[in-house]
Amino acid sequence: MSAPAQLVARTGAHIAERLALSAATAEGAHTATAEVPGWLAEHRRAGATVVRRIPFAGLDHWSFAPDTGDLRHSSGRFFTIEGLHVVRGGAEWQQPIIVQPEIGILGILAKEFDGVLHFLMQAKMEPGNPNLVQLSPTVQATRSNYTKAHGGTEVRYLEHFLAPRPQQVLTDVLQSEHGAWFYQKRNRNMIVEVDGDVPVHDAFRWLTLGQILRLLRLDNVVNMDARTVLASAPALPAETRALSSDSALLAWFTGERARHDVRARRMPLREIAGWQTDEHSVSRVDGRFFRVVAVSVEGAGREVAGWTQPIIEPVEHGVVGFAYRLFDGVPHVLAHARVEGGFLDTVELAPTVQCVPSNYAPAGAEERPPFLDALLNASPDRVCYSTVHSEEGGRFLNAESRYLIVETDEATTPTQPPPGYHWVTPGQLNWLAGHSRYVNVQARTLLAVLDAALQGGGTH
C-alpha cells in the first residue's frame, strides 16, 4: 500500500523570510565585505588577461557566411550575428542582432552558515567588462560552454544545477536578456541550496545577500548575471496596498502587450539598411546606437585560455532609472511597458528611463525619452541610488549605464502617467519578476537593489 500523499505549502514565504534574513546580515561567516574588491583585483592581476580589438579577418573560426553575410562560428555553436527587420506600427528599422537560441544557466549556490543563507559568488573574467573581473554567479554558462563545444575544461559546480531536487531550489525561472541586442534570448536563473560540504575554489567566496547588496553600491563590481538571478528570487512583500491591485496591473500589462503590433523577422546581415561594414566594424551610417566589432582574448583563466570573438559595443554610456514616489506612505516606481525588437513577447516592464542620451542629441525636445530630464536634473538629495553597472561582458564591450533611483513629484511624474507607463510597488515588481518575460533585465538590476535603496541603504 502506497504512503499517503504529503501536501506542502503553495507559497515560498519561508524562502523569502530566509532571504530577508540574509539581506539583513551585513557581514558573513567567511569573507569580510571590504575584502571583496581587493580579492577581485587580485584575480584581475593574476589573470593578466589582455583584450585587444582586431579586424574581422583576425577572428579564429569566425567568418561572414558567403550567402547571407551573417557572422558565424565554424562549429555552428555559440551564437550568430544576423540582421533583424522590425516593424512597429508606423515605425520600421533594421539592425544587427545576436541570435543564441540555446538556454544557458545562471546559477547561484546557497548554503546556510550560522543560521544565515550565504551565496557562492565567483570572481569571473569577461572580456567586455570595463574592469574585466566582476562578482558573478557560481555558474554562468551557455549550453555550448558546459557541453565543451570550445574544447575547454569542466564548468565548476555545474552538477548542482543540472538536476537539483525540488526542495533544494529556492528560485528557478527563465528570464529574457537585452531585447535590443539579443533575439529572443533566455537564460535559466537559479538559486539552489546545498546541505553538505562544498569545496571552495580560490575564485569563489561565500557571501550573504546583505554583503552583495553593499557591493551593489560600488561601480562595476557585481555583474549583470548575478543581479538578474538575485532579482528573480522571492521577497517578502513590504506593502499590502498599491495604486493598482495585482489583477488591475496584470490587465493593464496584458493590454499593453495586445495594443502593440510588433513584427520582427531575421534577415541576412549583409542586407540591413542604414548600416555599413568595414574591416573593423559593422556600424550605423550615422554612428548612433552600437557597433559590432571583434576582439582577441589572451590569458583568460577561463574554460579556455584564449579565444577570439565578435562582440557588440555601444557608442556611449547609457542611463537607466526608476522614478520613485510615495503614495499614502507606500513606495512605488514608474514602470514602462517597453517594446524591443528582440523580445519574445511584444513588451516587457522596463525602468522609467532606459536610453543612451547622446542618441537623442540631434533630436528636438519632443523626441527625447519621457522623464529623462527629470531624472538627470534631479537634485542630489533626491537621488536614492546612483551606481554604474556594466551589462553582460561575454557579449557586450564596455556597455556601461548609470543606474538611478530618483525621488520625483507630481510635477515631474504625475499620478496618472502617460500611456505605456504604470506605477507599481516593489512587491508587485518582485512578484512579476518571478515569472518569465514580465520584467526586463535592466529593471531587474534595479529591482535587486530597490528595497535597500528606498530604506536608505542606497548611495548618493
Could you please describe the fold and organization of this structure?
This protein starts with 12 loop residues before the first helix and ends with a helix. The mean pLDDT is 92. It has 3 domains: 13-48 and 101-232, Nucleoside Triphosphate Pyrophosphohydrolase; 50-95 and 266-314, no CATH class; 246-263 and 317-457, Alpha-Beta Complex (Nucleoside Triphosphate Pyrophosphohydrolase), CATH 3.90.79.40. It is 20% helix and 33% strand. The chain is built from 10 helices and 24 strands. The chain has helices at residues 13-23, 36-47, 143-146, 159-162, 209-215, 224-232, 246-259, 372-376, 426-433, 441-457, and strands at residues 50-54, 62-64, 71-73, 80-88, 91-99, 104-113, 116-125, 133-136, 139-141, 169-176, 186-193, 204-208, 262-267, 275-277, 282-284, 290-298, 307-314, 318-327, 330-339, 347-350, 353-355, 383-390, 400-407, 421-424. It has 460 residues and is α+β, with helices and mostly antiparallel strands. This is NDP-hexose 2,3-dehydratase. One of its GO terms (molecular function) is lyase activity. Residues 34-232, 248-450 form the dTDP-4-dehydro-6-deoxy-alpha-D-glucopyranose 2,3-dehydratase domain.
Summarize the entry for a quick read.
This protein is α+β, with helices and mostly antiparallel strands and about 450 residues long.
Describe the structure using short key phrases.
single chain, 460 residues, Nucleoside Triphosphate Pyrophosphohydrolase, 3 domains, 7-stranded mixed β-sheet, globular, lyase activity, NDP-hexose 2,3-dehydratase, EvaA-like, EvaA-like_sf
